[in-house]
Amino acid sequence: MIDKHSLMHQWCGRLLPVCAALHILGHLFGSIPAIVNETDNAKINEVFTYGTMIKFNFNSWAEAMTCYPFVTGVGLVLLLCCFWALSNEYVRRRWFEAFHYPHLVLVVFWTGGLWAHGARQWLGCGVPLGQLVVFPVVLFYFGTRLSDIMRGIHPNIYIKDATIKKKTVLLEIDTENSGFVYETGMYCMLKVPAISEFEWHP
Questions:
Q1: How far apart are CA 18 and CA 13, in angstroms?
Q2: Does the pTM of the predicted model rise above 0.70?
Q3: Which GO terms describe its cellular component (predicted)?
Q4: Average pLDDT of the chain, as a whole number
Protein backbone atom coordinates (compact mmCIF):
# COMPACT_ATOMS: atom_id res chain seq x y z
CA MET A 1 0.00 0.00 0.00
CA ILE A 2 1.42 3.39 -0.97
CA ASP A 3 0.42 6.55 0.85
CA LYS A 4 1.25 10.21 0.30
CA HIS A 5 -0.56 11.81 3.22
CA SER A 6 1.95 11.21 6.01
CA LEU A 7 2.97 14.84 6.51
CA MET A 8 -0.62 16.07 6.52
CA HIS A 9 -1.54 13.28 8.93
CA GLN A 10 1.33 14.16 11.27
CA TRP A 11 0.54 17.88 11.24
CA CYS A 12 -3.12 17.20 11.97
CA GLY A 13 -1.95 15.23 14.99
CA ARG A 14 0.30 18.08 16.12
CA LEU A 15 -2.40 20.72 15.67
CA LEU A 16 -5.12 18.81 17.54
CA PRO A 17 -3.66 19.62 21.00
CA VAL A 18 -3.17 23.26 19.95
CA CYS A 19 -6.79 23.58 18.82
CA ALA A 20 -7.97 21.76 21.95
CA ALA A 21 -5.99 24.15 24.17
CA LEU A 22 -7.47 27.19 22.39
CA HIS A 23 -10.95 25.68 22.73
CA ILE A 24 -10.46 25.10 26.47
CA LEU A 25 -9.13 28.64 26.98
CA GLY A 26 -12.16 29.97 25.12
CA HIS A 27 -14.43 28.19 27.58
CA LEU A 28 -12.45 29.19 30.67
CA PHE A 29 -12.25 32.87 29.79
CA GLY A 30 -15.32 33.24 27.59
CA SER A 31 -18.42 31.07 27.65
CA ILE A 32 -18.27 29.76 31.24
CA PRO A 33 -17.86 33.20 32.91
CA ALA A 34 -20.57 34.57 30.62
CA ILE A 35 -23.06 31.84 31.60
CA VAL A 36 -22.18 31.95 35.32
CA ASN A 37 -22.74 35.71 35.45
CA GLU A 38 -25.98 35.67 33.43
CA THR A 39 -29.28 34.95 35.19
CA ASP A 40 -31.52 35.27 32.14
CA ASN A 41 -31.75 31.86 30.43
CA ALA A 42 -33.30 33.43 27.34
CA LYS A 43 -30.12 35.38 26.67
CA ILE A 44 -27.99 32.25 27.14
CA ASN A 45 -30.17 30.33 24.71
CA GLU A 46 -30.00 33.13 22.18
CA VAL A 47 -26.20 33.28 22.23
CA PHE A 48 -25.11 29.66 22.65
CA THR A 49 -27.66 27.23 21.24
CA TYR A 50 -28.62 28.39 17.74
CA GLY A 51 -32.38 28.08 18.02
CA THR A 52 -32.89 25.38 20.66
CA MET A 53 -33.43 25.58 24.40
CA ILE A 54 -30.42 24.83 26.57
CA LYS A 55 -30.97 21.82 28.86
CA PHE A 56 -28.50 22.85 31.52
CA ASN A 57 -27.67 26.12 33.22
CA PHE A 58 -24.92 26.33 35.80
CA ASN A 59 -24.66 29.24 38.19
CA SER A 60 -21.21 28.51 39.56
CA TRP A 61 -17.85 27.15 38.47
CA ALA A 62 -18.48 24.02 40.55
CA GLU A 63 -21.67 23.30 38.62
CA ALA A 64 -19.87 24.02 35.35
CA MET A 65 -17.33 21.30 36.16
CA THR A 66 -20.08 18.67 36.36
CA CYS A 67 -22.18 19.60 33.33
CA TYR A 68 -22.46 17.44 30.21
CA PRO A 69 -20.09 19.48 27.97
CA PHE A 70 -17.40 19.49 30.65
CA VAL A 71 -17.56 15.71 31.17
CA THR A 72 -17.39 15.01 27.43
CA GLY A 73 -14.60 17.58 27.10
CA VAL A 74 -12.54 15.78 29.73
CA GLY A 75 -13.12 12.57 27.80
CA LEU A 76 -11.80 14.20 24.63
CA VAL A 77 -8.67 15.41 26.43
CA LEU A 78 -8.08 11.87 27.72
CA LEU A 79 -8.45 10.57 24.17
CA LEU A 80 -5.82 13.06 23.02
CA CYS A 81 -3.50 11.77 25.74
CA CYS A 82 -4.08 8.21 24.50
CA PHE A 83 -3.30 9.32 20.95
CA TRP A 84 -0.01 10.82 22.11
CA ALA A 85 0.95 7.90 24.35
CA LEU A 86 0.39 5.32 21.60
CA SER A 87 1.66 7.37 18.63
CA ASN A 88 5.12 8.45 19.76
CA GLU A 89 8.14 7.01 17.99
CA TYR A 90 9.18 4.79 20.91
CA VAL A 91 5.88 2.87 20.81
CA ARG A 92 5.66 2.80 17.01
CA ARG A 93 9.09 1.22 16.61
CA ARG A 94 8.81 -1.35 19.39
CA TRP A 95 5.12 -2.28 19.51
CA PHE A 96 3.61 -1.41 16.16
CA GLU A 97 0.31 -3.16 16.92
CA ALA A 98 -0.09 -1.08 20.09
CA PHE A 99 0.14 1.99 17.89
CA HIS A 100 -1.78 0.93 14.80
CA TYR A 101 -4.94 -0.80 15.99
CA PRO A 102 -5.79 1.52 18.93
CA HIS A 103 -5.11 4.46 16.61
CA LEU A 104 -7.92 3.38 14.30
CA VAL A 105 -10.30 2.83 17.22
CA LEU A 106 -9.39 6.14 18.86
CA VAL A 107 -10.28 8.00 15.66
CA VAL A 108 -13.81 6.60 15.92
CA PHE A 109 -14.01 7.45 19.64
CA TRP A 110 -12.71 10.96 18.93
CA THR A 111 -15.43 11.49 16.33
CA GLY A 112 -18.10 10.25 18.71
CA GLY A 113 -16.67 12.39 21.49
CA LEU A 114 -16.77 15.55 19.38
CA TRP A 115 -20.32 14.74 18.37
CA ALA A 116 -21.32 14.24 22.00
CA HIS A 117 -19.44 17.34 23.16
CA GLY A 118 -21.23 19.55 20.66
CA ALA A 119 -24.57 17.74 20.78
CA ARG A 120 -26.17 20.69 22.58
CA GLN A 121 -25.06 23.05 19.85
CA TRP A 122 -27.72 22.53 17.20
CA LEU A 123 -27.92 24.54 14.00
CA GLY A 124 -31.62 25.29 14.24
CA CYS A 125 -32.42 22.43 11.87
CA GLY A 126 -32.03 19.41 14.14
CA VAL A 127 -28.48 18.57 13.03
CA PRO A 128 -25.56 18.51 15.51
CA LEU A 129 -22.56 20.54 14.41
CA GLY A 130 -20.23 17.55 14.87
CA GLN A 131 -22.28 15.52 12.42
CA LEU A 132 -21.77 18.12 9.70
CA VAL A 133 -18.12 18.94 10.35
CA VAL A 134 -16.41 15.80 11.67
CA PHE A 135 -18.36 12.74 10.59
CA PRO A 136 -18.03 13.25 6.79
CA VAL A 137 -14.26 13.84 7.08
CA VAL A 138 -13.74 10.64 9.09
CA LEU A 139 -15.88 8.67 6.64
CA PHE A 140 -13.79 10.03 3.78
CA TYR A 141 -10.58 9.11 5.62
CA PHE A 142 -11.65 5.52 6.25
CA GLY A 143 -12.95 5.25 2.70
CA THR A 144 -9.61 6.30 1.23
CA ARG A 145 -7.71 4.00 3.59
CA LEU A 146 -9.88 1.05 2.61
CA SER A 147 -9.43 1.92 -1.06
CA ASP A 148 -5.65 2.09 -0.62
CA ILE A 149 -5.60 -1.30 1.11
CA MET A 150 -7.69 -2.90 -1.63
CA ARG A 151 -5.44 -1.42 -4.31
CA GLY A 152 -2.35 -2.37 -2.33
CA ILE A 153 -3.10 -6.10 -2.52
CA HIS A 154 -3.14 -5.98 -6.31
CA PRO A 155 -1.34 -9.09 -7.64
CA ASN A 156 0.88 -6.94 -9.90
CA ILE A 157 2.46 -5.20 -6.90
CA TYR A 158 5.40 -7.17 -5.59
CA ILE A 159 8.98 -6.86 -4.38
CA LYS A 160 11.10 -7.27 -7.49
CA ASP A 161 14.51 -7.13 -5.88
CA ALA A 162 16.10 -6.65 -2.46
CA THR A 163 19.61 -5.44 -1.68
CA ILE A 164 20.77 -6.12 1.87
CA LYS A 165 23.22 -3.53 3.17
CA LYS A 166 24.98 -3.18 6.48
CA LYS A 167 22.17 -1.33 8.28
CA THR A 168 19.39 -1.11 5.71
CA VAL A 169 17.57 -3.10 3.07
CA LEU A 170 16.97 -1.51 -0.34
CA LEU A 171 13.77 -2.79 -1.94
CA GLU A 172 12.72 -2.42 -5.56
CA ILE A 173 8.93 -2.60 -5.79
CA ASP A 174 7.25 -3.27 -9.11
CA THR A 175 3.83 -1.59 -9.51
CA GLU A 176 3.51 -1.93 -13.28
CA ASN A 177 -0.07 -2.41 -14.55
CA SER A 178 -1.45 -2.03 -11.02
CA GLY A 179 -2.93 1.45 -11.40
CA PHE A 180 -0.49 3.09 -8.99
CA VAL A 181 1.31 6.24 -10.08
CA TYR A 182 4.26 7.29 -7.94
CA GLU A 183 4.29 10.88 -6.69
CA THR A 184 6.91 12.70 -4.65
CA GLY A 185 6.31 12.25 -0.94
CA MET A 186 4.72 8.83 -1.13
CA TYR A 187 5.90 6.11 1.20
CA CYS A 188 5.28 2.39 1.14
CA MET A 189 3.47 0.24 3.69
CA LEU A 190 4.72 -3.35 3.53
CA LYS A 191 2.84 -6.45 4.63
CA VAL A 192 4.58 -9.74 5.35
CA PRO A 193 1.83 -12.39 5.18
CA ALA A 194 4.05 -14.97 6.86
CA ILE A 195 4.03 -12.74 9.96
CA SER A 196 0.54 -11.26 9.83
CA GLU A 197 -2.20 -10.58 7.30
CA PHE A 198 -3.20 -7.42 9.16
CA GLU A 199 0.11 -5.61 9.71
CA TRP A 200 1.35 -2.91 7.37
CA HIS A 201 4.74 -1.40 8.21
CA PRO A 202 6.08 1.88 6.79
A1: 10
A2: no
A3: plasma membrane
A4: 77
Cβ–Cβ under 8 Å, residues 69 and 77? no
The residues spanned by each domain of the chain are 5-152, 156-201
Cα distances from 158 to residues 113, 147, 187, 192, 198, in angstroms, run 40, 18, 15, 11, 17
How far apart are the C-alpha atoms of 112 and 85, rounded to whole Å?
Answer: 20
- On whether the CB atoms of residues 158 and 174 are closer than 8 A, the answer is yes
Q: How many whole angstroms separate alpha carbon 34 and alpha carbon 47?
A: 10
Q: Are strands 169-174 and 2-3 parallel, antiparallel or unpaired?
A: unpaired
- At residue 47, the pLDDT reads 66
Residue 83 confidence (pLDDT): 86
Give the pLDDT mean for 116-137. 68
